[in-house]
Design brief:
- α1 runs antiparallel to α2.
- The protein folds into two domains: 76 residues, DksA, coiled-coil domain (Four Helix Bundle (Hemerythrin (Met), subunit A), Up-down Bundle), CATH 1.20.120.910; 38 residues, no CATH class.
- The chain has four helices and no strands.
- It is elongated, with a radius of gyration of 20 Å.
- 62% of the residues lie in helices and 0% in strands.
- It is mainly α.
- The structure holds zinc ion.
């Protein structure tokens, strides 16, 4: 398109930004749709014990799904932030570029496959608790 976009060795960020922005939009939509569904179900006041536990069950599913969406949305937002910062596509663990193949599969990937596997192993060992990559 112009001289800046000329086949440099640098990763082309524009397509990833587009994918990430679309994904963020999609997750936000799904979250608001779930919220709307929950509001509707709240209007049905449970009449007996059975209905009540069913109601709680649905609420639990909602919360659980919402947590996953929240996590994904945060990861997508982080990835967009990294594009702005110019650190997108670079693994913060080994500082090596993340393969385009991996970014195509998981555009919000923070770590390269090797580091991701090491982190996953550390989580499995109970060494770290927090980080886990959301799947689409
Ligand atoms: Zn790495």
């Amino acid at each position: 398109m112009n001289t800046i976009m000329k086949n440099g060795p640098k990763l082309k960020l524009a397509p990833y930004r587009k994918i990430l922005e679309r994904k963020a939009e999609e997750v936000r939509h799904s979250m608001s749709a779930q919220k709307a569904a929950q509001v509707v179900s709240r209007l049905d006041v449970p009449s007996d014990e059975g209905d009540l536990s069913q109601h709680h069950h649905e609420e639990w599913i909602f919360l659980n799904r919402n947590t996953i969406d929240m996590k994904l949305l945060r990861e997508v937002a982080d990835a967009l932030h990294r594009i702005d910062q110019g650190t997108y596509g670079i693994c913060p663990e080994c500082e090596e570029p993340i393969s385009a193949k991996r970014l195509d599969a998981v555009p919000w990937a923070r770590y390269c496959v090797t580091c991701q596997e090491q982190i996953a192993a550390r989580i499995a060992d109970g060494e770290i608790v927090e980080f886990q990559e959301a799947d689409r």
